[in-house]
Amino acid sequence: MKNLLMLYIVFSSSFCFAQDSTYVRKMVNTLTSKTFWGRGYTKEGMAKAADFISSEYKRLGLSPVGENYKQTFNYPVNTFPGKMLVEINRKKLVPGKDFIVNNESPSLKKNVKLDKIDSANYTGGQDLQLILKDKLTWSVASEVSGVTKIEINKKTFTEIPKTINVAIESKFINSFKASNICGIVKGTKYPDSILMITAHYDHLGGMGADTYFPGANDNAAGVATLLSLAQYYAANPQPCSVGFICFAGEEAGLIGSKYFVENPLVSLSKIKLLINLDLVGTGESGMTVVNASVYPKAFAVLNKINAEQKLISKINSRGKAANSDHYFFTEKGVPAFFMYTQGGITAYHDTFDKPDTLPLTAYQNLFKLIVSFNKKIME
Fold this sequence. Notes:
28% helix, Aminopeptidase, signal, Glucose Oxidase, domain 1, 379 residues, single chain, 7 helices, five-stranded mixed β-sheet
């Protein structure tokens, strides 16, 4: 009977985490779908994602921070909602695969011969540049330059560029509306003491009417992991409160997290520790913790738990870095770790960061590590 009971406990635990994995995979697939169009600046992608995450907070049982889950702010951004035609040597190229338009580019319609500058750079006049690249990597711009720059993938277009036909539509938005999504599970004993878990939900959006950037690893995986932790803590309230923030505007320069720090919905002094999740969809080569050397005692606790439970293959220590949404909290004296996994797929800021190639290798063990670590921090 005792052996049967132990077997039941082990099976139940495994089943619980299997369910969590299913939920996380579902969230990644949902957030990277065409409905949310890269969670960016065209086709209302970011707004739709914000509404979805808010509804998921409510469904899971999180309380809003303030009057509702949304903290709204505005910032400038250059967008590409319409025409996206590029023909080189009369051959039509595929957006995202064969070329990208530099994010600061203005609209342009032009059909001209190209002049060679060097082996990688060509010009079609003062307002048009062509650049040959080994990898196409896109981003977000908050201003517009005077030159339209087209980056061509050398791996898919191998000819020498001689002529170019361009019809590109960009639209600069002075005051794009975005929202941080904030929820909390109140602590049972110390509700004014908060452990904060964060992840940015925005990505690059779309380039033209037919191409979008799914952002599976960056950062649907982080949001999905955050939501799975929210699901757990909503069902298992802790002595301290556990807060959750999905930031907007990270890809445009950590804008959402900066806004929250400057306009906090909870006192920053009440945050015991912040864990920021970004790029956590792999894990074959372990993980890295930014600010590990800034908070060595907390990092030692994390490493001890990991060694005892044999979870992540390797945890690398890294110092202070302004590379994700933890940064402005650190600058205000809030203890913060930024965790990201390593290995596996190399897709980043391109159209190949897709859910079907995202392994979620370390998800279950990362989940266990964070829960065990938080428990220790709350003691």
